[in-house]
Each structure stands twice: as C-alpha cells, then as structure tokens.
Amino acid sequence: xxxxILRTFQVFVQDTYGFEPWRRIVxxxxxxxxxxxxxxxxxxxxxxxxVRASESVLNKPSDAFLEDVxxxxxxxxxxxGLRRLLRFGGVDFIEFLHSLEDLPDRARLAVAxxxxxxxxxxxxxxxxxxxxxxxxxxxFGHVMLGVLRAMADDYGALVLMDCDDGFxxxxxxxxxxxxTAYAEGRQFALASCGTPEEE
Amino acid sequence: xxxLPTEVLLALCPMHAVLDATGCIRQAGPTLRKLRHEPLxxxxxxxxxxxxxxxxxxxxxxxxxxxxxxLHLRLRGGVxxxxxxVMVPACDGGAVVNLSFGISVMDAxxxxxxTNTDFAHTDLAVEMLYLVEAKSAALDASRxxxxxxxxxxxxxEERAFTDTLTGLRNRRALDAVLERIIRGGExxxxxxxxxxxxxxxxxxxxxxxxxxxxxxxxxxMLDVTRKDDTVARIGGDEFVLLFPGLTRHERLAxxxxxxxxxxxxxxxxxxxxxxxSLSIGIAISDDGKATPDDILMQSDxxxxxxxxxxxxQFRFYESPSVTPSTGRVAGE
Lengths: 199, 332
What we know:
The complex is a heterodimer of chains A (199) and B (332).
Chain A: H1 3-16, H2 19-29, H3 46-57, H4 62-75, H5 80-87, H6 93-99, H7 103-110, E1 119-123, E2 128-133, H8 140-155, E3 158-163, E4 171-179
Antiparallel strand pairs in A: 1-2, 2-4, 3-4
Helix pairs in contact in A: 1-2, 2-3, 4-8
Chain B: H1 6-12, E1 16-19, E2 25-28, H2 30-33, H3 45-48, E3 49-53, H4 60-64, E4 71-75, E5 82-89, E6 95-100, H5 105-111, H6 125-159, H7 171-183, E7 188-196, H8 198-205, H9 207-224, E8 230-233, E9 238-244, H10 249-263, E10 267-269, E11 272-274, E12 277-285, H11 292-308, E13 314-316, H12 324-327
Parallel strand pairs in B: 12-13
Antiparallel strand pairs in B: 1-2, 1-6, 3-4, 4-5, 5-6, 7-9, 7-12, 8-9, 10-11
C-alpha cells in the first residue's frame, strides 16, 4: 500500500479532527508508528485497518469518511498542490471529467509506483455521465465522489452525483451536469507561484 | 508554398505570424499577441523579435534564408522571453513564422498569465507544466523523507551498541552491561586493554593497516574470551573485557597472557607485517559491590602500572588496604 494514500488519511484526520483522534486511530488500527511516510510502501492490509479504525474512532460510516477525504484533497489549503494538478486536466468541468481516464497514468508519471484504480468515463444522455471506478482500493469510489464534488465547486459547475456501493470492488458514480458555469469557481493560473506580473 | 487559410493558422497555431514581402506582420495568433501590449499588425517582425540562431537575421532576405532551420529568437523589449520557431516562405514573397516557448514555457506562463486555452490542444506545454509541478512535489516529499531518515540514522547511531569498525560492543554497551551486572550483585572481573605500538603502525603503514590490526585484535579477543563475556572497544586502541562470574587470579592471568602472546603475532597487511603488543590492567569485584566508576578506575590504574613497567604485560589492581604480596601477580 503506497504511503501517499495512507499519509492522506493521516493529514486529513489531523487537519480536520486533530492529533488526538489520529493517535486513537493509530492505536485502534494496531500500527507501529503514528506517522506514515508518503514515499514509502506499507503492508496491503494497512489501508483497511486505517479505514476501519477511523470508522469507529470518528463514529462515522466509512463511505462518508472516504468522501470527506476526497473533498479534503481538493479543497483544503494544505493540499492546494493536488487541486492544481487536477485543474491541469481541463478548462471546464466537462473537460476535467474527460481527463479523469488519464488520472491513474498522470499519477504514475508523478510517482512511479503509485497504483490508482482504473477510471472509465461513459457518456450517457447529454450532460449525463457515469464514472466507473475499478477495483484495488475498496471504497475509492467514495473518495472520487468527494473529489468530484469539490472539483465541481472549484470549476463553479452545478452537478448532481451519486455513488453506488459497488460490486466486487468496482463502483459507479452517476454524474448529472445541471449547469457548467453556475458560480464563479476558483482561480487557476498555469504558473504555480506568485501573481502574474501586469505590465 | 500556397497560403494556408487564415482560420486554419489561427486554429492550429496560436503563436504564428504571417509576414508580407517587406517583413511586416500581417496577421498574428492570439497567444503571440499576448506577448506585447502594442498591436503587432503592421509592425516589422524583426523589430519586435530578435533572431539570433542559426545566425542573426537583420533583414527579411536574411530571414527567408533560414527556411526549414530551427530558429532561436527572443523578444527585443519587455521580458525578452526566448522563443523557438520555424519560418516557411509564402508564394507572395512573405513568410509564415510559427513560434513556441520551448523550455522557457515555465517563465512564460507566469510572465504573460497564460491559461490552458492559450496553447494548441496538441501542444504538450500544459502536460509539461503538470509534470514539472507533480515531479517537484514528489521530489520535495522524497527530500523531506531523506532528511528525516538521515536524522533517524544519526539518532540510531547514537543509540547503537556496536562499534562499526570491529563489530565489538561499544562504550555505551559496556556501560549498560556493567550496570546490569553490578545491579545483580554478581562477582566479576574487568580487563582494560591498550595496544602498544599501534600509533607506529598507523603512522608508518597508514590507517588502512591500523584498521586491519584493530579487526584482527578484535577477532583474537572474541576467540580467547567466553561466550558470555563482553568485549568492547571504548576508544581508538582501547578495549575493555568484562567477565561475569570470573574472579580467579590464575584463570585471569592465564587469559591475559594468552591475549598478549596472540596479539603479538605479526598481522599481515599488503605484503608487510604489522606488529603490536598489549598492556592489560585487571580489576576484580569479588563481592560485586564496586561501582562502575570504581572498577573502571581500578583497571585503569593497573593498566598504567603495566605500561610503566615496560608494556606488553598485565597487572592486577592492587588495593591499598591489601598487602602488596597478595594483591599483585606480575605478568611475564
């Protein structure tokens, strides 16, 4: 299990609930150390152990926990870098949706040994999409649901979404786009630091 | 070459310029226009862009001669952004120049506040920006991990109980064992050893020879001592042997003698022979009541007695309260 994924759980809990709940999750999951290293690998079952422990310590169903993690990844200032990387996917929400299939490959370009489940976007009726989330990370569909909700806000799009419970590890997210430019959305400049110079 | 329709150029090449026969810009792509506040139309191309490779081009004729070559250009005013480009002559004596930022795209997106739509869909610029950002994030994470691992390594070394050169215990391990034995109230003895003539080996044959000697000496000590004894290197050429439960003078004297004769055997190194010897001070705690400081001080005193007596020998510590004849057994 890639440390980047486990580390995400850690910083999410610490930033959202504080250090004490994270310490209790570490104890409940029976982990040796309280800190995950983003660039190291951990035993495969650590993922499930952390998700289960979070469920009981935070007293929250794992679906909701995972969705919150997804939202956190895009909207929290501490993970601004990831939001930017996702925004490189397209100029509006639809283009972003179309870029999702590339997401696992893009992730691998950045971190060679990071394996994310396959993502497959299917166009249905106009403004209707379903995103099929492959197996490998149980509940990853809920993380993606959180990511998509936050990205819709980021682009200023009005979207209805729903994620099923999945079948043999695979999940499907139904996406209905009500309005592409519903709200202002957040700024995105290709240049990463500082404000663009006005001449 | 036949002129491409304007709309094709605009759609495919957001950084192109169409020049007339006099070298003035007749049409420019939308992204190229962002590089300058003043309008480009009608302005002489070479007044705005300096072509400096493959060779400087000052006139339209010189520019036309670069056909098919990779051009290196930069803006004459403002940020002087470097650009890459290619020129294709047109049938009316003019030309089409297509430009790109090349590696300077990182600075260009910042300097001109460019967005995804400023690049052609086929342009890999945005992918490159993505990669640069993703890779630097990954690299930062790796670097911070390395820093932490280095800190952990230093901390682990500080906690280590092993001497890395010889594989023997170190001073910290010795202190821990000594304290444990004394706490247990068990009788024990301790030898303080110091190599003789080691400095000469180091000075004349080099440090590699010195290291070889230390490793050989360590092997001999492990060989001569028992399994439960502690063999520690506590300084450059200083060692301490700790014998739990062993207090008999005869046995200790026999062991010390054997250590000295074994260590005096020549040690081969690089076709030569290193020769060292050993001075030993021995202290005994019959009742197990001596403190670590006491026993180390006593063995140290005995060691110096051995050194003063001419090296290559051992001495037992002589307690002031005991008569000299019973407290001392001389070495050979």
